[in-house]
């Protein structure tokens, strides 16, 4: 009886376990990436090999389940997917890796939680989304965005008292990379701005090509070619592109198979079961996991300013996502009675679940922008009866 109860509880919490697994995978990737980048791994070599692995992992799903969709790829759709790869992977992910190299894993992960806010700001400026300050949800959403920005400024400008959880590498942890905190911060800011632009493009493309596996497969292939071209232009030395049986190779397979392919499947499954906002609510956990793991395993310092900033970002992000979810629910319910009304543009602006998953917005946008359609066969039957 007890075993049956345990199985029942596990079955009811399977989505929760899946999302916790996603955050653990993201934590491992941040730490592994930080270690190999600190030891001189070339960023675009890492991105090229990583997306080769991701392409091979996603290919079976695209070729088996969505084979016919590949025939629907026009030059217009291909160009849009090309821009998604350019903004969401080459620019956003590349700049993030350079920022991670110059800072710490915890510091860089803080900026990932600001991506929904950057997307919100861009969509508001471009009039894709309205502030709706007259509503309670609109006020909470703006307050959440301000708390996130306050948290980011606190982490950047205030340090305070410093302490260590582990004495491992306490004195060896101060490397020359930390002297480039300003440069790393600029890279991270540019990265989240690139992600904000990427989400706007992604939301538009998802309406004309809503095939998540095929789109991911094509984007990963394009990103691989783009990474090689940009990387060769920056560094042509064979030593920068050479692979060995070391931590670099482990990180490449880890990031491609787990952080991209496996995470994509888990989050797509969670979006189908619980909706697009549910996975986003777990995103701040990776920040906590990374901070603890980096302090324990890498001997990284923890400051009062970083803890205060993390708290403000987490509270602000939860407030923003909850208000956004309520706002979308109100919009859908108000439009439910009118089947001809098009879905609001702001429903296509989705929340980042994980930066390692460059196609999640497609599934979320597809989930959010469904419109009730009148089945055509009913009309044909009525016409036959009239005849």
Which structural class fits the helix and strand makeup?
Answer: mainly alpha
Percent strand equals: under 5%
> What is the helix fraction of residues, given as a range?
over 70%
Number of strands: 2
SSE pattern, N- to C-terminal = HHHHHHHEHHHHHHEHHH
**How much is the average pLDDT?**
79
- How far apart the termini lie comes to 64 Å
The largest sheet is: 2 strands, antiparallel
What overall form do the CA principal axes indicate? globular
Strand order of the largest sheet: 1-2
Low-confidence stretches: 170-177, 339-387
Give the radius of gyration: 22 Å
Q: Count of helices?
A: 16
Subcellular location: Membrane
Membrane topology: Multi-pass membrane protein
Domain EamA: 19-156, 183-319
GO molecular function: transmembrane transporter activity
SSE order and pairing:
Layout: H1 2-12, H2 14-38, H3 43-65, H4 75-102, H5 105-112, H6 115-125, H7 136-157, E1 162-163, H8 181-208, H9 212-234, H10 238-241, H11 247-274, H12 277-280, H13 283-297, E2 302-303, H14 304-335, H15 360-368, H16 376-386
Helix pairs in contact: 2-4, 2-11, 2-13, 3-9, 3-11, 4-8, 4-9, 5-13, 6-8, 7-14, 8-15, 11-15
């Amino acid at each position: 009886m007890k075993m049956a109860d345990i199985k029942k509880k596990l079955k009811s919490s399977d989505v929760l376990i899946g999302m916790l697994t996603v955050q653990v995978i993201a934590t491992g990737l941040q730490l592994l990436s930080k270690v190999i980048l600190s030891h001189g791994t070339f960023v675009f070599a890492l991105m090229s090999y990583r997306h080769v692995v991701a392409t091979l992992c996603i290919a079976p799903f695209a070729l088996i389940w969505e084979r016919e969709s590949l025939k629907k790829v026009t030059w217009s759709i291909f160009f849009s997917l090309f821009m998604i790869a350019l903004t969401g992977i080459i620019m956003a992910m590349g700049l993030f890796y350079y920022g991670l190299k110059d800072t710490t894993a915890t510091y860089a992960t803080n900026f990932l939680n600001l991506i929904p806010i950057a997307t919100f700001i861009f969509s508001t400026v471009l009039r894709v989304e309205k502030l709706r300050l007259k509503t309670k949800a609109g006020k909470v959403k703006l307050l959440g965005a301000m708390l996130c920005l306050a948290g980011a400024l606190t982490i950047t400008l205030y340090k305070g008292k410093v302490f260590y959880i582990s004495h491992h590498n306490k004195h060896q942890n101060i490397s020359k990379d930390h002297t480039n905190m300003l440069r790393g911060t600029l890279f991270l800011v540019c990265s989240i701005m690139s992600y904000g632009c990427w989400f706007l493009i992604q939301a538009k493309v998802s309406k004309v090509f809503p095939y998540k596996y095929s789109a991911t497969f094509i984007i990963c292939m394009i990103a691989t070619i783009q990474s090689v071209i940009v990387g060769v232009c920056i560094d042509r030395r064979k030593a920068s592109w050479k692979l060995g049986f070391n931590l670099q190779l482990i990180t490449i397979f880890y990031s491609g198979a787990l952080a991209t392919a496996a995470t994509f499947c888990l989050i797509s499954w969670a979006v189908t079961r619980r909706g697009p906002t549910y996975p986003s609510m777990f995103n701040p956990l990776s920040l906590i996991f990374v901070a603890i793991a980096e302090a324990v395993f890498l001997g990284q310092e923890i400051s009062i300013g970083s803890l205060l900033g993390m708290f403000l970002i987490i509270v602000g992000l939860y407030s923003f996502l909850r208000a956004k979810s309520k706002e979308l629910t109100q919009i859908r319910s108000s439009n439910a009675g009118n089947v001809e009304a098009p879905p609001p543009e702001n429903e296509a602006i989705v929340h980042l679940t994980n930066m390692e998953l460059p196609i999640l917005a497609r599934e979320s946008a597809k989930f959010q922008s469904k419109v009730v359609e009148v089945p055509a066969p009913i009309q044909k039957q009525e016409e036959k009866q009239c005849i």
